[in-house]
Write a structure and sequence with these properties.
By secondary structure, this protein is an alpha+beta fold. It has 4 helices and 4 strands, in the order ααββββαα. Strands 2-1-4-3 form a 4-stranded antiparallel sheet. A hairpin with an 8-residue loop joins strand 1 and strand 2.
Length: 108
């Protein structure tokens, strides 16, 4: 699942924690880290990890796959509706994703 697909699910009333937990087995739904395969980008595949089970680093390698930290699922649960409200009628999964990616790169 990529970030656009994740946003679609969240906007249709699923919680970020539920989506993450459904894509990672045995994960603590209260402390989920959202990572992107290879690097943070619009098209990178998402991966979800229990933050209590991974080192607190930006870059992580699991089963020889590199990942870059993005946000926690709870942060995204807040950011997605905030940006949707801020963007108003211009809010699409793409515009929301681009705004959050900009926030991640320049402000976070």
């Amino acid at each position: 699942m990529n970030f656009l697909q994740f946003i679609e699910l969240i906007r249709h009333s699923a919680s970020a924690e539920e989506v993450a937990a459904s894509h990672a087995s045995g994960i603590n739904t209260e402390n989920i880290g959202v990572y992107m395969e290879h690097k943070v980008s619009l098209t990178s595949e998402l991966a979800f990890f229990d933050l209590e089970c991974v080192p607190p680093t930006i870059f992580l390698t699991v089963s020889e796959k590199p990942y870059e930290a993005f946000f926690s699922a709870s942060e995204l649960a807040d950011l997605i509706p905030e940006y949707a409200d801020f963007l108003g009628t211009a809010a699409t999964p793409l515009t929301i994703a681009e705004a959050i990616l900009d926030y991640h790169e320049y402000d976070a």
